[in-house]
Each structure stands twice: as C-alpha cells, then as structure tokens.
Amino acid sequence: MSGPVLPVLQGVAGMSDVLGLQHARLAEWFRGTTTGALNAIYIVEPLRGSDGSVADFRCVFANPLGAELLRLRGHDLAGLTLRQIVPPSRIATVLHQCLAVTADGAPIVEEFEVPEYPPEMRWLRHHVVAIQGGVVISSENISARKQAKTDLARREEWFRAAAEGNLNALFINEAVYDEAGEVVDFVFAHVNEQGGRLVGMDPAAMVGRSICDLFPVNRTNGYFERYRQVFLEQRSEVDEFPIDSPTLKAKWLRQLAVPWSGGVALSAEDITAEVARKHELEARQRMLAAFIEQIPGPAWIADGQGVARVYNQHFVNLGGDRTITQGEPVSLDALFGPTQGAIYRRHNAELIASGETDRGLQEGPRTDGSRGLYDVFRFPIEAADERLAGGFALDVTDHDQLQRQAKLLSAIASEAHDAIFALSAGGEIVQWSASAQRLFGYRAADAIGQPGTMLLPPGLADELGQLRAGLEVDRPVIRHPTRILRDDGHEIDVDLSLAIYPLGDAGETCVAILASDVSARVRAEARADYLTSHDDATGLLNREGFVQRLSRRVPGEGQPLVARISLREAETMRELLGSPMVDRLVAAYAQRMLAALARHDAVVGRDGPDQLLLTLVGGARAAAALLAEWPQLSREIALDGQLYSLNPRLGYAVADGTADETSESLLRASDLAHGHAVAHQTTAAIAFEAGMAALLQRRVEIQRELGNAVARNELSLVLQPVFADGAPGGVVGLESLLRWTSPLLGFVSPEEFIPIAEESSAIVALGDWVLEQSCRELKRLDGQGGEALYVAVNVAEAQLARGDFTRRIAELLARHGLPPERLELEITERTLMADTAAHQSNLSQLRALGVKLSVDDFGTGYSSLSYLLRFAVDKIKIDRSFIAGLGVHASHEALVRTLVALADSLGLDCVSEGVETEDQRARLRLLGCGQFQGYLLARPMAPAALHDWLAERRAPPR
Asked: Distance between CA 439 and CA 524 in Å, rounded?
C-alpha cells in the first residue's frame, strides 16, 4: 500500500511514532469525527491492472455507520473491493462515478434507490469527492425523507380525489388577520367542482377571493361571524338555513362547518328540493288531517299490528273516557281494550292479506255509550314500503243522520279532483259531480238524463256494456284508458275506474265512473316517443327514426336512393358561433334539400352533429335529380342576413331491388361512397361503385387473418425510446409498438388493423401478446446494465373491461421479476370517459398495485380534467398533430402550452410525441415540456437493434 492515502491510514492505525505527534493528533480527530458522524464515510483507492487501467477500487477506511449502511454490521471493510461490498444493482454506477471524479475532479451528488435494501434504508444520498490518490464517499440514509414526501403527495392526491368526488359542495377557507391579530375575513383556498356549480362560478376563479366580497354576508351577525366563531372556538357546527342571494342558485342549504388550523372547511348541500318536498308533505298531511276530521263518523288508517296511524276525533271518542294524545299513533288495545282491540286488529290483518275493499253493516259503540248500526267501509292502502288498512264508518242508526252523511259524501265527491259520474242500466247519466262539469264542460242540468254517448266516442258505449257484464258489485275494474268528448268538441285522454253500485231495493244497479284526466301524461309519453326518433335541436329524424322510415321502403318498390352528407365547415363554425347556431344551419340546409327534392318523396335525418342522411324514391330518376340539384345544394346558405359555406360532401347508393337488400346494406354502401368523397376532398356527389366494396372486403380479410396472427407467430415488436432532459444517456423509457406482417396480406399498417381489432375480440389476444413481449424485452435490457427504464404499452378498452385484468398484470410482472412502477399502461381519453364499473375497479386496482397510468393522444378527445383527477393518472402524452403545428399555427402552440401547464399543475409527467425537428424540441423546452419522443431522437427499433443502440449510447467516452 502506497501513495497519498498512506498517511491517512497510518494515522488511523495509530502510527504516531512514524509520522510524529501532530499526525497522531490529526488521526485521533479524524477517528472521532468519522465515528460520531451521522453519515457513512468510505475512503477507497484505485486498483490497477497490468495495463495500468483501473479495474476496481479497494476500501481503505469505513466508519461504523458505513458498515451498517452496507448491511455488513461488525465487519471491517478495509481491504474489500467495491465489487465485494456494493449491492449488485449499484456496482456499475458506483465504479463509473469513482472513475469520473478521479478523472475530472468534479464532485458528484446523487439520490438513488437500492432495490436490495429494506424500505427503511432503501433510499440513499451520496457525495463522491476525489482526494489525492483516491476517493471519499459520504452516504446518507434519506428513506424517511423520501417516504414522508411520498406520503405527502399521496395525501394531497387523496384530498384532491375526495374533494372532487364529493357529491356536496366543498369550500376550504383560510382566515385573514389584521395588524392586531383579529380575524377580519376568510378567503377561498380550495373549491371543488360541486362548489362552483352551487355558486354558479368557475371554482378556479373563486380561489383567493374574499367570502365577504363574493357573498352578501353581514360581518356582525351573518355567515362571516358564524364562521369566525367556529374558527375561534374550534367547534364544528351543522346548520340548515334559507338563503336569498343573487349569486347562489340554492334557496336552502345544509352546511357543516369544521375548524382547521388555518381557517374553516365548509361542506354545503343544496336541500332546496328536499325542503320543498318536506313542506309539500307537511301540507298534504295537514290537508289529510283536515279532510279526515270533517268525515262525520270514525275514520282511521291502521297497520296489521294494531296501531292506528291516522284517525279523527270521532274515532277517539269511541274509546270512551280513555285519554290519548291527538295525532300520535295509538294502539287499538289501549283505545278500545284488549278484547275489542283484538277484533279490530284481526279485521285489519284480513283486509291487508286479501287486498280487497270491504263494506257492510256492523254494530258498534256510540259516543253516548249506547250501541248503534254503522255502514262500515274498509279498504287496503299501498304505502311506500308497507300495506295498511283504512276505513270509515257512518252511523246509520238515525235515517236523518244517514241523509246528512249522504249529502256530505256527495259534497266531497263534487269537490274531488277527478270527475265522478254514473250511468244507469239503460246508459243514461244519473249522477254528475262538480268536478265532472269542470273536466267535461257540461253542467249537471245539461248532463243528467242524457245518454252516455254524449261523452263517449263511437264504440265505447258497447265496450262499457261488455265491461258491465263482467263486473260484480263493489269489485271495480281500474284504469281503463280511453278518450272522451268535451262540450267544445275536443277529445281528452282519461283513465276510467268503473264499479257497479245498487240504486235501490229492486236490484237495479248503475255504473259509477271515476275519470282521471291523463292528457298531460299522454302528451309526455308522445313527446318521449318523438324524442326516440327525432333530433330535438332540429326536429329532423335521428338515425333510429331514419332507419325505421327507410326500412318501410326496403325491400319494396321505388328502388330508394340513400345518401350521406357531411357538412365539413360545421365543426369550425361550432367553435366560433356555438352549437345552437350550427343546429339552425343544419336544419336550414335540410329544408333546402327537402324543398329541392320534394317530388321524389325526400326524407332527411340527422346522424351526429354535422352529418345528414337522405333517402329518395325513384332509383335512377332520383339519382339524376340529385345530381342535377347538387350544384345548387352545394352553394352557401343564408341565415340572419349572412352567407355561410358548409362545404358539403355527399356519397349515395341506389337500391338494386334484390331480395336480400336491407336498409343497413344501403347505408353501408352510401357510407363507402361518402368516405371516398371525403378522402378525395371532392365536392362532387359520389355514387357507390362495386370497387368501393373492395375496401370492405379487405377489412373482412384483415379481421379474418388477424384472429390467427398470434398463433402463427406473425407479430413483431418495435420499441421507441422516450427521452428526458437530464436523464442518464437521455433515455428514460420505451414505448412498445406492434407490427404485423401477414403471409397473405403482407405488411399491414397498425393504423389499418388496430381499429379493426378493437371492434372484435382480437384486440384482447393482441394486447396480451404485446404485454408479454414488452416485459420480456425490458428484463433482457436489465441484463445489459445501465439505468432501469420503463416500458409503455397501449391498453384497449376491451382489455380494461376484463374482470381479471389487474390479476393478469400482477402475474405478468411477477413472472418477469419486474417492479410495478416500470410498467406504464397507456389508455385513450375515450376509454377513460367510458367509466364503467369494470374500468373503475381495474384502474383503482392498478394504481394500488403500483403500475403507472398515462393518457395517450391527450387533447384530441374529451380532455376532461375531472377524469384525470378521478383516476389519478401519472402522465399525459401530447398528440403528434399538435407538435407538428408548432411554429406554424399559433393555436397549436397555445394549446401545447396549456397542456404542459395543466400537467405541471397536477403534478403529472408530460411527453410530447412526434418530435421531428430541432425547432420543435427547442419550442417544447421553452414551453416547459421535459420529455420527448419522435424521429428526431430515435425511430422505433427491433429489440436486437435497440440493445446495440443503448449499449453504444451508454458506453463511457473513450
């Protein structure tokens, strides 16, 4: 052992007799300092081979914490090489760093993870410094700090998800103090989406604003003072209160105020509808109580257990001098005694079990203590979650009393909402209520004695005769829908309830009819039927309605023509003018076509925001008329004094009259012709030709061959590197891309076969193959050394919908020995928006597993911020179409800037795809994007080529 390290080691070994007293003192200081240091300290010197190159480094000194940190507690590390003491995953890196600082003298500071170590010491930070003849390495265990940072990020993520997933409005308010330390205001620190919706403002615009400025609060006894007391007294408060504010949409709020260290957290729920329902229920209960109290005899509603829920004073009086609280539920046993209570309870139970109305004469006690005769009506009542028994009894002991009660019942019937009338056996009207006069318009004097046919449409009188023959006394036929004539000649929709009642002792009967006006409901049902077949914005048929109309013509006579028209400029106009204006333009254009082609029985439907469907009858003549009118139909359309060019594209097909032709086959043919017109950017009307079917044939061939591509080993994988500024070698990850070469079809582009696979079950098998191969290739790269990379794999909607998807991913990672964070699953915005139960479950389980999630082609679809927060993705990938427009379209640069800022604000990584020029990369760096992917940096490579490319890139400079 020799060189500049020797004096230090001699001092450590106590060789003061050689180096003198001063060296001994320095050695003592060094020993004390390093032994008591909170960091691990190592001194290493290079070991050179016969050719003079450094092959390893040997440890000449390590303090006790150094041995403990290397999990070699109690071992003397002096004399051991780095290859012997450094964990396998770190050997290459540490050797490279020691060589680097030895060569250029620049210190190296690095934070890194050691997979072999337990969690409590997995993250380390070390400082590598060159000294004369060797290297000093100082290492610090930062695992606790890293875990604390991870826990904080997770809690922030939990809070964000909980806040946005909360069905109630959530406001986090921070207290504002004056110079004297008094709370003088609160400002919004966080508002969730429900909070913005409740207030009618953008939640982001509310943050930082004063509640006293935003709401009309009173500082002395209003909301501000209430929040201030909650904060100062550190107590929670729940309150319901009305609110009259031009800012808030709610009229009643239920609010929970909870203090926190910096202010007050508020959870608010709009209970306007709930309060209205409560008030309405209370009003109904008061009306019911008032109504039942007016019945001149006992009236009640009871359950099968013998508890009267609703009753009047007459019912209470039957119990004699027993005292009960009016309005409260009372036991029949407590009111009438156990014997009579048991009889009433049995009657109620039988009524509830049978479900049939019961009427009869029955003896019972009177309020004066005597017994009398009652006409008792009992009927079952269907409550929300149980069946009850209702009834009332009329004292018929006295005939005069009976007459008075009959008059009262007649008055009640006259004031009922539904019309009540009766027909004799001969069909004449014998009873007519005031409500019948209101509904039908006839006065009682004009109706009674008239034949029932004055109300009933032709045929209904005979139908009533048939119904009458099947009726029994007191056994009604409920809800017989029909139409009845008013006195003004208009028909109204009603539901009839019919029952047979005796007119006297001679056995004569009448038909009592209760008529409920259901015109509003019938109109609502007709409206619903209309909306299922029509586009509400334009009044045109929707696709379903159009196909139904077309199906009546195919197969059949007239050889219908079917066309698809897309209004190419409508999408741009929608951004500038808004959807209502575009709806008017689409409707106006449809009316122009209907007017121009009316002689061919034209029918127009709307299929999506900017596309129309057209059908004509007449075959070749219809086609000739369409071609003749098309130049005029392609011109600008005038609306509100302005001319608008919709730049339509049209493709059409004419039925050939074959028996197997269907409306769907005609629509497919017109779609092929329309696709040809769009692809060739032509304004001409394009007719379907047999050659276009070749496109469909190829689609069928691709779908057929694709089903066996995995079994025949026809698939291959290419990997494209993902670059990041500051990453070792510049590369942080790889994206897996699928390639297919069919023996029958040759090379098939992914843009052609992937959409076809997604429409069939083939995408699941392809996706499993790509996942398996991607993990296999990533594990092979690990054997090459260097920084660990991640691999990104596209996942289709059908894969994510599988119930065992997360389990398969976990098994895949375990099979290849890969940690979850090295697999990144790319999902599209459309898949994210599908939001099925299976998707939610798998995304949550994948997050829990530790797999990374990214949104591919972000900005081209729905771009919903709420879904990014809800599913807590890790990364967004900006679509190449926006990158291509940098430096060309100002809107593209503004959009990319917005997306990068969005990712940064949410703590997400952001990757720009399709980077092909240095100018694009420079612009992206200025905009704040740090990860890139594209042909400028590296093209997709086969695994073998990628291995060589990475090895060359990672090789130290010579």
From this structure: 20
3-state secondary structure 9-43: HHHHCCCHHHHCHHHHHHHHHHHHHHHCCCCEEEE
Q: How many beta carbons lie within 10 A of that of residue 939, not counting itself? A: 11
What does the DSSP assignment read for 940-951? Answer: -B-HHHHHHHHH
Q: How far apart are CA 406 and CA 202, in angstroms?
A: 64
CA distance 551 to 521: 30
Distance separating alpha carbons of residues 338 and 340, to the nearest angstrom: 6
Burial class (CB in 10 A: 0-12, 13-18, 19+), 514: buried
Share of the chain above pLDDT 90, in %: 24
The token pair that represents 748 in the structure block: 């098939």
Q: Is 40 exposed, middle or buried (0-12, 13-18, 19+ CB in 10 A)?
A: buried
SS3 annotation, 588-642: HHHHHHHHHCHHHCCEEEECCCCEEEEEECCCHHHHHHHHHHHHHHCCCEEECCE
Residues 6+ apart with CB under 8 A from 370: none
Q: Is the pLDDT of residue 221 over 60?
A: no
The verdict on pTM exceeding 0.70 is no
Name which of 696, 597, 695, 598 is nearest 650 in CA terms.
Answer: 597
Burial of 513 (0-12, 13-18, 19+ CB in 10 A): buried
Give the CA diameter of the chain. 143
pLDDT at site 853: 93
Q: What is the predicted pLDDT for the residue at 57?
A: 94
- Tell me the Ramachandran region of residue 130: left when phi exceeds 0, alpha when psi lies from -120 to 50, beta otherwise: beta
**SS3 of residue 405 by DSSP:** helix
* Residue 221, burial from CB neighbour count under 10 angstroms (0-12, 13-18, 19+): exposed
Please tell me the predicted confidence (pLDDT) of residue 436. 81
The active-site residue out of 164, 193, 705, 913 is 913
Residue range 404-445, pLDDT digits in tens: 444 544 555 555 567 787 877 777 888 787 778 878 888 887
Cis peptide before 87 (omega within 30 of 0): no
CB 821 within 8 A of CB 790: yes
List, for residues 60-78, the tens digit of each pLDDT value.
999 888 888 887 777 788 8
Of residues 337, 395, 406, 400, the one with CA closest to residue 366? 395
Does 913 qualify as catalytic in the annotation?
Answer: yes
Residues 345/351, Cβ–Cβ less than 8 Å: no
Helix (H, G, I), strand (E, B) or coil at 325: coil
- The 10 Å Cβ neighbour count of residue 208 is 10
By DSSP bridging, strand 491-502 and strand 477-485 are: antiparallel
| CA-based nearest residue to 275, from 250, 248, 252 | 252
**How far, in Å, CA of 613 to CA of 608, rounded?**
10
Q: What is the pLDDT of residues 774-830, one digit of tens each?
A: 999 999 998 888 789 999 999 998 898 888 999 999 999 999 999 999 999 999 877
Q: What pLDDT was estimated at residue 324?
A: 61
